[in-house]
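Hi U.,

Before I forget, here's the chain from the pilot set. I'm dumping it here mostly so it's searchable later in email.
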Amino acid sequence: MEAPEIADSMRLEPEDVRIIRALQIDPRVGFATVGAVLGISELTVARRYRRMCRAGVLRVVGVVDPGALGQSQWMVRLRCRPGSGTAIAEALAERDDVSWVTLAAGGSEVTCAVRSRTAEQRDDLLGRRLPRASAVLDLQAAVQLRQFVAGRGHYWVALTGVLTPEQETALGATGLSPFVERPIVRDPPATLSAPDDTLLAALAADGRASLVDLAAATGLTTGRVSRRMQALLAAGVLYLDVEIAPLALGYRARAILALRVHPAQLTAVGRALAAMPEVAFAAAVSGRDNLHAVVHCADLDRLFVFTTERVGALPGVETMAVSLTSRQVKQVGTRVDGGRLT
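Structure:
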């Protein structure tokens, strides 16, 4: 029996969306602080947060940026034999170094992001395992050259205006997106210790885990855990991602855009996309189609209007292919089932 879609079991109320926005601003903010800013009780905030987590609407997770460790990130598109796409997508979603797995073209096309922590991991997957799989008919891989919106920038523009400027300031917002455009691969790369790996694994399971729980997982004191987590955040090795199920926000039409943009206008188009609420991810990539974007709209008609009248009208856009997502299998580090984060 398939899990019911998220919209069948829970519709977000305005207070829920305001709590999500507060978490976007500060993913580890205390419930008491959120309650004080929003004018509701701490217990109400905690109850609504836990209800959204149970319903598969929301997760706060710690994510390692492989670029900070000196590793590149790749967008991979697989064309599969009919009937085999789902199995390949599920197998890829089980891998720690693969994120954002989607199925399109009636289940015969798989798109994923490969964010391997080591070059050996990446080469094993892209150079050996996938090309040798009998169900894979074609593999196209493009390295990301520059991200325009990603990570903590997901849905930032979409939820702008949910809180008043005064509320956002009280929660620590600066008026800017928490995502910072910068080179994909940083030099020199950061190095991690064994306790770092344990800490990052604990935050990947729960980005809001208490310092006491993190200290127990790592064998460090709460003070050392706090200082090390802040150091990893400041260095860009770690970011705390507020993952949201698109269906919960009313997005039922999801698509991947492969755009060919004139090189002189690539940065301008990427930044224009990043400012649009429908765009969850945008990056310049290698290859003829040099801009990759993930977009969400309320329905197919709005997707048509968005792609033709707004994206297609941007100066420099030469061609655009729209690949409608039939199923989201994984978001960043979270599996998706029936539209629910699991």
